[in-house]
Amino acid sequence: MSAIRGTIQDGQVVLSAPANLPNGTPVRVMASVHEYVGIGMGEESWPDTPEGIEALVARMDRIQPFLTSEEEADWRKALAEQNQWEIANWEAHSKPIEDLFR
Fold first, then answer.
1. How far is residue 64's CA from residue 76's CA, in Å, rounded to a whole number?
2. Do residues 65 and 26 touch, judged by C-beta distance below 8 A?
3. Which tens digits make up the pLDDT trace of 69-99?
4. How many CB atoms are closer than 10 A to CB 78?
């Protein structure tokens, strides 16, 4: 279950939105001294209506790929070449480490 957010007012917890929990449900309240400052959206910013979700998906669909298809093909080729080199040179590079444990 995700966290339920709220604030303390006059010694009572006041929720930011109604909790979808039945009466009598035990809960644990922990103080949060740090707000979300990471990359992206905090939990409270995610849309929770069909219209909001649709708008978010539309914005996400407008994001352009980081690499062109040609750049991605070049990257995948270089990655495969590096993988082959590592396989071919595994014995030479792993022997000194293996010797440390003898």
1. 19
2. no
3. 999 999 999 999 999 999 999 988 898 898 8
4. 10
Find the Cα–Cα–Cα–Cα dihedral 91, 93, 94, 98, rounded to 10°.
Answer: 120
Residue 31 Cα to chain centre, angstroms: 23
Is the model more confident about 35 or about 85? 85
Average pLDDT, the chain: 87
Map out the domains of the chain as residue ranges: 6-46, 69-100
Helical axes 90-100 vs 69-88, angle rounded to 10° = 50
Tokens in use for 96?
A: 């000194």
Structure tokens at 2: 């995700």
Judge if pTM exceeds 0.70.
no
CB environment 26-62: b (16+ within 10 A), e (fewer) = eeeeeeeeeeeeeeeeeeeeeeeeeeeeeeeeeeeee
